[in-house]
Every structure is written in structure tokens, then in C-alpha cells.
Amino acid sequence: MSGNSLGSRLVLTSFGESHGKCIGAVLDGCPAGLALDENDIQPMLNLRKPGQYDISTQRQEEDLASIISGVFRGYTTGAPITMIIWNKDQRSKDYDNLITKIRPGHSDYPALVKYKQFNDFRGGGRFSGRLTATHVLGGSIARKLIKITLGIETNSYTVQIGKIKIKNEPTKNSIESIYSNEVRCPDQESIHDMIDAIKSAKKSGDSVGGIIESVTVNTPVGLGSPIFNSLESDLSRALYSIPSVKGVEFGSGFASSAKFGSKNNDEFTIKNNKIITTTNNAGGILGGLSIGMPIVIRIAFKPTSSISKMQNTVDVETNQNTTLNIKGRHDPCVVPRAPPVVDSLVSLTLADHALQDGFIKPVI
Amino acid sequence: MSGNSLGSRLVLTSFGESHGKCIGAVLDGCPAGLALDENDIQPMLNLRKPGQYDISTQRQEEDLASIISGVFRGYTTGAPITMIIWNKDQRSKDYDNLITKIRPGHSDYPALVKYKQFNDFRGGGRFSGRLTATHVLGGSIARKLIKITLGIETNSYTVQIGKIKIKNEPTKNSIESIYSNEVRCPDQESIHDMIDAIKSAKKSGDSVGGIIESVTVNTPVGLGSPIFNSLESDLSRALYSIPSVKGVEFGSGFASSAKFGSKNNDEFTIKNNKIITTTNNAGGILGGLSIGMPIVIRIAFKPTSSISKMQNTVDVETNQNTTLNIKGRHDPCVVPRAPPVVDSLVSLTLADHALQDGFIKPVI
Amino acid sequence: MSGNSLGSRLVLTSFGESHGKCIGAVLDGCPAGLALDENDIQPMLNLRKPGQYDISTQRQEEDLASIISGVFRGYTTGAPITMIIWNKDQRSKDYDNLITKIRPGHSDYPALVKYKQFNDFRGGGRFSGRLTATHVLGGSIARKLIKITLGIETNSYTVQIGKIKIKNEPTKNSIESIYSNEVRCPDQESIHDMIDAIKSAKKSGDSVGGIIESVTVNTPVGLGSPIFNSLESDLSRALYSIPSVKGVEFGSGFASSAKFGSKNNDEFTIKNNKIITTTNNAGGILGGLSIGMPIVIRIAFKPTSSISKMQNTVDVETNQNTTLNIKGRHDPCVVPRAPPVVDSLVSLTLADHALQDGFIKPVI
Amino acid sequence: MSGNSLGSRLVLTSFGESHGKCIGAVLDGCPAGLALDENDIQPMLNLRKPGQYDISTQRQEEDLASIISGVFRGYTTGAPITMIIWNKDQRSKDYDNLITKIRPGHSDYPALVKYKQFNDFRGGGRFSGRLTATHVLGGSIARKLIKITLGIETNSYTVQIGKIKIKNEPTKNSIESIYSNEVRCPDQESIHDMIDAIKSAKKSGDSVGGIIESVTVNTPVGLGSPIFNSLESDLSRALYSIPSVKGVEFGSGFASSAKFGSKNNDEFTIKNNKIITTTNNAGGILGGLSIGMPIVIRIAFKPTSSISKMQNTVDVETNQNTTLNIKGRHDPCVVPRAPPVVDSLVSLTLADHALQDGFIKPVI
Fold first, then answer.
1. Cβ–Cβ contact B287 with C under 8 A
2. b vs e for C200-224, b when ≥16 Cβ sit within 10 Å of the residue's Cβ?
3. Residue boundaries of the structural domains of chain C
4. Regarding the domain with residue range D5-356, which homologous superfamily does it belong to in the CATH classification?
5. Tens digit of pLDDT for each residue in D135-160?
6. pTM here?
């Protein structure tokens, strides 16, 4: 399988399966001297945890993270930091009748072809959205690291659920308030409609998708590189590791294609002795490098593939067309659980670049 | 700078500068036994070449590629293949007055902060779109490799220029015809409007962007991996190495966010003894793996940053606000030159995965 | 710290500390379909385990390995295989007075300079020979993998302890018998003297080193590559990850420097329709590639750095010269515990190359 | 083939073939701001050049290096530095009759099995010692980089040719004088015998090997890491990329295996307010980290494989035993040409670690 590591100087290796014994991660390359214990990780994990609201899957996982290496007397040592979450509420039984009928929208079919009967299909195995908890294990550390060393802060929030889009631009305050509502939305006017959209989909055995926006402030100028490790390259690579993501854009993104250069270029000016741009269509990145403006990313999530509506599919045992009725506990919409995952992947990528380029020292 | 290599088993290393002596690439990991000479590379390079039409930059570069290592008696040997294009028509003079006034939309500012006075700013140096020719150097080989070993074929074409979108779905035939028109568009009805949009922008000293769609057929089932080396992760990483790209989406992409799961899931069925999906909202990828359906990607290009309209900016020498009037020869729209670059990056990524997973042998 | 991973296609990541909660490893890239449970790992771990004989450290560790990911219904799935050994008998107290007096021959001094007060110095932390158990975690799997797919078999044994060298050339039979004696020596005539050498060193509060020889048979022709990933490059890199190793040579190694080419070249001949060499001064590797002859490596281990004899050193707190008397339970000679570690690193390296070059398929 | 790159933060990619159009290298990751032109490279290349003395091959290559990317106005820019040497005096004819009779000691046989008829066998192709010139291309830059930023200096010299070993320990002065004699030996008393040993071997159509010692001074404390990227791991990996190397040892190396710990441990003491060791059996490395003492490596070279004496071998066309008489121009001993290559690989490895750990900044 391979391909379970992210980063070059700060490397996150993800392991575990949705319904195996555990999920976990090794974060290698974190500087020595970062104060760290489970309390730096658990809150962010909790924000991603299943079963928090009735709009989420009812799988009950405490998702308790333990740090089992790399920390000594309360500080990181420079050694690989290993974190583990033991799976509790697995109920693999729910998946027993899914073995031969391949689920539309899921990895069942290509995974079967690729890994044959050896694939751990229980709850999606390695392909499960549950694995994004391992991104948060590493991401919570990266997020703390870039915050205390460089002041960088990443925040992600919901800007669309199904057809419901936010009506008001997010503000610093509204972004800080998102975890007080179930859909992690900064726009008070849209929250109710978004929740309704999810409940309504759930009621009809269906699902909805949505869009997360991520804004990172206080990035120094010059993170990244041209060509193959541009910030856009590395950020998108990281974000596409989230199973449901089907689109990633920076700044004005797809909309920029329809604009004139004279409208899309962000003009430079001097403000408080600092060079800034007066607009931010570039999303904070030019030539693959950060320019000191907020890094703005929008990430499109498809609707959850697991729906209880009857679907046509193929039975790979009989090699016949058939129908499928998925049981089990699923999120009618994964978007509200995504912000901490997006924050994690953005933080890991920026921390990696910051370490590569000497913005952060090996001992802090 | 680093970050000049792409791929893990098939590795493309790009080198050179827009107005330096040359640009070039080393492709390491190509199997032995592939018939190869410059004629496999030059045609694809020619399709990307500047100065072909009056809607493109008037810089005259022959862009003649030479293979200088890795080929013996007409076949690849397994050794690194080095290719070089000597720069001819550099006219660095055009850029002399750009040194201190940072160009909006360009990398000038972060590159100056990051690399100080050492940055080769001539024509954008390493940050220039000209470097995408190095992607084509490697990509033309990768494209041939996956075509003759696995039958995989990637084609990219213009679906939007500025506000002009294609009105008819591309067909196999219309895609094959794109290089007979200046904008590489498969829709006869839209070509004229697209050309007009570019000419009109050029006339007013402005620029436009657009959207390229890429379709890859005959991919075997099972290329890719879950999590960090998903096909989406690796394809998007590669595509974001193109300087003007600000959005990448797969299948129904951002549109899927507004759909119900029951509409977005692609149902499986059996056709001619093969398992296929009846729709392709997934863009040929589920769980990070190819499913044998066409891989469909859309790539958003921002409008060219170099415009001759007057712009506000900062002079970094005087640290004062100023205005800027960019001279030089620039594409009012880079999109028509992008299809071979997109084909290259998609082919390189798929070839890399095919080699990693043993779909292609080390000697073919 | 980083640098905790080995391999490019088959990647072993080591984690944990000598006196932390655990040590463990993630093996990423192992093909799906390999029958695997703890019984494939434990026997090899047991052969490396401390406290087996009175010539070894008296630290009592059961070294019980658990597989916590990557195996499903008795077979590898292709996902990362995570293995963990919980530390039991840590007695960190023994190390309390070592904090400021830097131990000669140990990493204390550079680790303190590099990681400051954050270094986990307990029992050597990350620098401890105990970490070689994590090599065995991955190596036992690699060893099984190349055995059942390609018939490759690696065996390592002691050829020198202190000044005592073996007197008779090892044979297939004598190599198979090594674990019946405490020093893992294939030469019955030398065993007694070797044990004596260790006991005598121990008695005087001193330590001895030695040399391990490793022989790998049934390697196919063509593993490896010229230049930077030559088999010698990758094998030596792996072997030097063992803390006490200070020399690595292949075939006639250092002795070849004094020979004439006409004596050192191995002539080719045909035997049983197979091309072989009549001698094996090359140690089975030419041009960085395996030639099908046994791969022969000799690895020099320095004497254990921890000795109870009084030593001169520096107290880094007072910055004064001082003397040091190391307590604690240490091996007077680590060589007898090294064969499974060497077998592991050789197997991991060969398995990695076999996977890279398609000698082993992603699903077996 | 792959495996043509060395390093993780500072990456050298080697390309070209012995009798192809050129050989060359790309050095990626070199900091911006290093004053650089061909004069920094050519002198070191000249010291490795063939045809300098009558004890060396008579192939006449000027080995003129050109820098074709990555340098602007006399300084490195941070972009990949590409260097090229066009091959001149190839005389591939000499090799025509070697195609089917596999040369003992050479890569012919495994290369043929691995790359089939596609292998570029001319003069050894990718496997030729000539490719070590590409190590010098990158190494000369790395050597300058660590010298001017950290004061690190690597020097290598001959300590053994055939059976002739130096009789006097090298001194700073004698090391500086080595290039005034043909065998690069610091011991005036041994030079004559060494030259004689080579001439005598040449006269009888034979060859000899030898040992190079490398000493690096002024290394800061703490370069390297424990486990898989120990300095020993990375240095040995690099050094084994030299085709004739069959042994690498650090400090007292193989000799340490026969010593007691109390004799092999280097005691610490304070001298001029600096912590040093009173001996240097560790060769400057403990726990994989530099300790500030000289890094001492000895590298064993086998005798040149190309000899003109008649040898038994196999004709792979007829699959019959046969005899072989190698013509062509070969070094009877490659050791005198090795010091700049060893200096290069040591410097590249140390520079890579210095960059990884922030000892050298991205812009100097």
C-alpha cells in the first residue's frame, strides 16, 4: 500500500484501520523542546469525534489519544512522537453483508481488485474517514508548533452544506465561535438552514456534501518553493488525503478563470511599514511562496457515500447486477467534522516548510 | 530552493531559468527498452511553444530538445534521461526596469524576501511559466510509456476562456481535433468567442484566464493508494506546479458539494463483462484508487499576471508606493498553451504509480 | 531528530525509547497476502533478547511483540504493519547519576549539545542498542517475505570476539547450529575461547567487541543499482544504524586492497547451466548489483561502551574534569545478540530492492 | 535504474554515461548567496582527471565543467545547479569485442541480466568509474559551502597501495602536500614504493588496490542523528557509490573489534575551555552524531577489474566458457584518483546534514 507518510522534514506516518485494534500516527522531525502532553491533542480530536450531535454518526468512540513515545518530562525530545487511539465501538457485524456487494462511492471495488481478498474491508479499513483522526494526532502538534514559534494560526469553517451557502463573510469573531454550533459555521444566519439540510437528507436516507474554507494568518513571507513543492502543491496533496475531498482551490480559485488580470492581480501597497496587497485573490500565495497575506483555501467535500437509500450495484461474487441497502451508522454529512482535519493538514504542511527553510529551529 | 523533483519511483527533476543558458530535465526511473528519440518529445513541446499565434507571446523560442543521456541505440537504458533546451531569444533587457517595482500577481516580492538579491529575476527565473517546458520534456516520455505498455491515454483541452464556456460536451473526435484551433478547444461553437476574448483582453492591455479539462482513458483499476498518495493527492500536487493554477477538481468536484449522495454516487453495473459505473461523478477515482473509468480533472488558471495596464505597487528600493507599467512580450492568456503541460503532469503521475505497483516492469 | 525511517519502497519507521513506555515500528509497503502473526516475529526477537545468558545484560525484558495494525484474518493487507513492545524492566534509577558526567563511548555529549536538556537520556533513550529490537520487528517480516517469494535466506554469525577469531570456515550445517551456543559462533573450536573472552572482560569490569559475518544465499541476479543505491550503499547504510558498528566490508573487503586484480577478480564459469563465479571476492555484488553468488558482509562491532572500570570524563554541569564509574546492567559484549539484528537489516534492504524492481509483486 | 540521487535536503543527481555524449549533475538545495563559478569546480575535477601521469589511464579527457543553471551574477540563486562535462575522447571501438564476453570484476553480467540488451555497456556506461566525476561536480560546491559557512574541511589521501602501507602518521603539512606526488600519499617515505607497486602491476598486465583515509576537521558537535541517518550510515552510503569500494570503517574500525572497551573508549577532557576526547577511536562520531573531533574514515578500494592478463570467463552469446583479454586504456590503480571523489562525497553528506539541522541557512 505504502503512501502512508506525509511531509519531508516533518513526517507524519499514519497507521491503523477503522475496525482494527487501533489507529495511530508517528510524527517524526518535530523539534525538541515543545511542551506537549495529551491535552494538546485531545481537544482537537474531540472536535472531530463522531457521535457528538444527532446530525453525526452514532458510532461512539471516545477517541482517547495516548502519547507513547517522543515526550520526556513534558517536552518533545526530537525523537519520533507516537500517538495511539484504541478502537472501542467497532461493531464490525454491521459490515458483514457488504463484503460482496460493492458500495457505490466507496473504495470497495478498486480495493478488492488491488488488494484482493486481503483488503481489510471492515468499515472501510484504511480507506475510512476515521483515519483522518490520525491526521489530527499529528496536526494538533504541528498547529501548536507553528503557533508558538511563528504565531501562525489556521482556522477552518463551513461555508456551504448542500445547497446552503453562507450569506455573510466570516469575521475573526465569527470564526472563533464556530464550535458553538453543530455545523461549524461562522454565519449565524445560515446555521439553521444547514442543520435542516443535513437532517432532511438523513431523514430520506440520503446525504449531503459541502465546502470548508480555511484561513491561515501570520504566515511569514517566503514559505514554500516554486515548481513541485509550491505551497499549493503541498497543501493540496495533503488535503486530498481526506477521503471525501474532490476539489481544492486557493484564493479566488475557479472564479479567477473568468476574471481579467487587471481585476485579479492583487496590487501591493505599504501599510504600517509593511508590504501588503490590497486584495487577496491570490489566497496568500504567489509563485508557490507565501506572501504574508492570509492563506485562503476552499475544499469541496462530496456527499457521504454511505446512504441508506436503495442503490444499484454489482455483486462481485456472483458477478451479477444487484441492489444494495447500506445499514450501519454513518454521517449524513461529514463536513461539520472536517474543520479540525483541515486545520491539521494545513498546519502539518506549513510546519514542514517552516522547518525545511529554517524558520523553525531543531530545538525550540 | 529544493523542491525541484516530482515522483517517487519515476522522478522528474527540473532545472534551468527562463532567461538563463538553458532549461532542462532529468527523468530518473524510466524502464529500459522504450524506443525513444527527440521525435517523441519535440511534437509535444511544439504544442506548448510560445509565439505560435498572435494570441500568444511573441517571444520566439525554437524550444529544440536534445536528449543527452539515458538513450543508447534508440532505446532507453534504465539510466537517467537528461534533456536540454538551450534558450535563444532571451532579451533580458525587457526586464531591467522591473527589478525594484514588484509586479502584482508575480513571485517578485516573496522571491526577493526569500532569496534576497540572489534571486534570478530575469523573466521570472525559476518561477517562469517557461519552466513548464521541462514538465513536457519528462511528460512526453511518460505519456508514451503508459500508452504503449498499458494503453493509457491522457488528453487535455480548453473548456473555458475568461467568461466563455464550451456549449457542447467534448467527444472523442472533437478532443482529437483541438490542435487545429488556436485555443485548443473541442467545441467548434466556442472557439471564435474564446479567441475574441483573448484578443480583446490583449487589445486593452489586459489578460484572461480559463479552465482546462483533462480526461484519461484506459487506466487499469487500482492505481494509487489511500491516504497520502491517493491519485487525487499526487495528481493535484503535480498540477499545482504549473505557475498559474489556482484550482483543481476531480469529477463533479465543487459541484458535488451541492448534490445529494444518492445523485452523486456512481452506481456500478456490468457491461461487456466488465464492472463499470453508469455515471462518473467520481472522476474515475474512489478511495484514492483508479476504478477504470475515465479520470476527469478540471484545472483553473488565473489570468496572466503580466499586463500592460498601469498598476499600483511598491518600489522595494525606495520602500514607497508607485505605479508600474509592464513591458515585454507576454501571453494575454496562457490557457491555450497548457494542454500539453497538463497531459505531461498527469502522465508522469500515472506512470509513477504504475511503476510503483508493478503495472509496468523495469524493462519493457 | 528525524532519520527514523529506512527504505524507499518498503519503509521501516522505528519509534520509542529504551526506558520510555515502549519501543515499536511501522513497516509500510509490505505486500498484501503474506501470512503473518506474532509467531513470525517473536522467535527472532527472542534470539536478540537481553538476559539470556550470564554473558549478557541482566535486564529482564520479555520483549513481547504485538501486531496492532496491518494484518487481517491472518494475512497482511498491504496497509502499514505496526508492532509494539511495551517496556517492562526499566529501572531508570540506575541512570540517575549519569546525567551530568558524560559517558565515554556513548552519545551523551553530542546528544546533550544537539537536543539540550530535552534529550531522553534514560538508558540511552533513542541511542540505546535496545532500539535494534525495532529493526528485528520489521526485519523478521522482511526475512519471511523474501524467503517465501524468492527463496532468499540471510544468516549471520559471530566470527570474532575480542582477539578470538574462528579457526574453521563456517558451513551450511555449522551456521544452522549457531543458536545452540551463547556466542552464536559456527566454529565449535572457538566457542569456548570466545565465551572465556567475554567472561574475563566482564570480570575485570571491561568489555569486548567482535565481528559478525552475514551470508545471504539465493539472491536473484540484478538486485540493486549503480551509483547511489548500490546494494553496498544501501546495505551499509542499514547496518551502520546499529549503534556499535564501526566497520562494514563486502567480500574480501579491506583485504582486497592488498591483492592483485588477477587474484581478486572472480572468474566466471558455467556450472549446471548457470553462470557463476569460481571465487567470491566480490561478496556477491558487482557494479552495485547482485550477481547470484552469496552476498557476504562483515560487520565490525566496537567493545561495549558501558564498562564499570573507572574512567576519566567531564562533568557538563560543573564543566570540570572528573571520573566516572558506570553502574547498571550492561552487556560485556553485544556481538552475540547481533545476528538477528544483522539478518533483519540485510533482509529489509534486499526486500526493499526486490519490491522496487518488481521481483516481488504488491500482492503475493 | 533509478537510485541516481544522493541526499535529502541537499540532493545530488548524477547523469550521463562513460562513452555517451556527456556526464553531469544537478545539485538541488544549495543555499542562495554562495559565490560560484567554474573555477570552484575545475581544480578539484583536474585532480581526479584521467591521463595525468603514466600510472593512470591514457584516456585524454579535459573534463571541462560548465555550470548551465542555478548561478546568476556570480552567486548561487537557490535554484538547482546543473553542471555538465561533454565527453571527448571516447574511442568506444575499444569496447566492441567486450559485448558478449563478460568481464570478471565488472558489472557486465548483472547489468546484462537486469537491463537486457538495452544496457549501455560502452566503457561501463553508468557503471564506469568515470561517473565519479559527477560526484566531484556536486562535491566541490558542497566542500566550498561547508568551508566558508562552518570552517569544515575534508582531506583525503592514500595510506596504502597494494601491500605498501604508509610508515609515518600523516600531519597537517604532509596532507597538504599530497597533490605534489602521483599517488596522493602524505608519507614521503612510502611514495616511491607505492609508485613502484603500480608500475610493476601495470607492466605485468595486472592491477592493484589500496586504501584512502579521509579526515574532516572543524565539524560542529551534533551533526547527524541516531538510527537510520547516523553520520556513519549516510557517509558509508555515499562512499559505497564509488564503484571500486569494498570496505568502509570509522575511527579504529575493524581494529576496535579486538580491543577492550577500556582501551577503545575515548575519555573526555577539557582543553582550552572545550570538551574534547584524548583519543579518537570513535573517528569523531558517537551515537551517529559528530562530537567535534576529526571525522576519520578509511575506505578500501579493490584492485582495478580491467586487467590485460588473460582471464577465464563466459561468452553469454554462445553460453560457453571462454577466455578474455581486455584491451583499452585502464588505470592499473584507481586509488590515486580517488581523494577528490572521497572529499566530495564526505562534503556532500556533511553539507546535507548541516542544512537539515539548520547549521547552514537557506541564504548565506
1. no
2. ebbeeebbbbbbbbbbbeebbbbbb
3. 5-356
4. Chorismate synthase AroC (3.60.150.10)
5. 999 999 999 999 999 999 999 999 99
6. 0.97
